[in-house]
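Risk register update: the risk that structure generation would not scale has been downgraded. Supporting records follow, first protein first.
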Amino acid sequence: MPAQRSGSMWLYLRGLLYAVGFYPLTMLFAIPCLLIGPLLPFRARFKFLTLINYFYIDWLRICCGLGVELKGREHLPKEGAYVVVANHQSEWETLYFQTLVRPQAVVLKRELLRIPLFGWALALLRPIALDRSKRRGALKQLLEQGQQRLDSGIPLLIFPQGTRVPVGQMGKLNKGGAMLAVSRGVPIVPVAHNAGLYWPGNSFVKYPGTVQVSVGPAIQTEGRSVDEVHAEVAGWLEQTMREQGSLE
């Protein structure tokens, strides 16, 4: 659980220091990414463009006292395509997971690609950018583009809650990850974390502590139904989030 939440002014100043490093460096780093990235094959491009994510995680530790404890990394397949399904509580996991699953194609909201420099560089990572206002079209796009990424041997990262869900709540998990994994017969790897305890939602303040990240055993999908796979993933996520203290 997080440390006692006192000294709000000090926490705000630490958050401000983090922002002073985060935003200018992100914009500056986007420039060489846009110049060099298109010239590189995808895997080399991913390695180059996500180098800055290691800085983000270290900068959070230095400025805000926010570290990470990872368990189960050995469960991530060493090669081939697979689907990672994780809970979504904070901005933290969008930064950290780029260092955990390499390379990857992430499912995200289309609006992020419109951010000058940052969004343009993000587009080079071949994300699946969904228009969440068109639910049927979004599902079709997810399945079509997701299958293309998997067929290319690129792992997928999906947040099935679709948006950030506050600590203490589970929200509804969509079946897109299970549908994709079953359609291509690839493993699905559940990942749970409690980042929302330390970096809640859109909060400017980050609380010191250690984010717990747990990678579950790969779930095989060949010969299984979507509902069966989805239920196993959802059950593992719910149980692990309770153990981490982020779900009542």
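Supporting record for the second protein:
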Amino acid sequence: MKKWIWLFAAIGLEVVATLSLRAAMDNPQWFVVVVCGYVGAFVSLSMVLRKGMAIGVAYGIWAACGVALTAVMAHVIFDDSLSWIMGLGIACIIAGVWLVEIGAGAAHGKMEQTR
């Protein structure tokens, strides 16, 4: 359970850092948030791995959720465009992450059976 909390923290920090990078273009003081956010995201991701989540699953979920949330939040906060094609891409990202998670679970089950 703790690994998922760390993963959600990593995702949230990465999204905050990326959105702050956009804000830093107008106000350089935001670079403090950018640096702290990215450092926190990588520390949190390392904790996820330390807690035992497979790197392919952890990185896949982290990166995919980061892309999807950043696109949606940039639309909300900065009025960036978000077309239906981008929405379809976000849906594909979600489906891909789901398939990776299912595949990792199936692979883990096979490994347990062979022991």
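The longest helix spans residues 84-114. On this basis the risk owner (M.S.) recommends closing the item.
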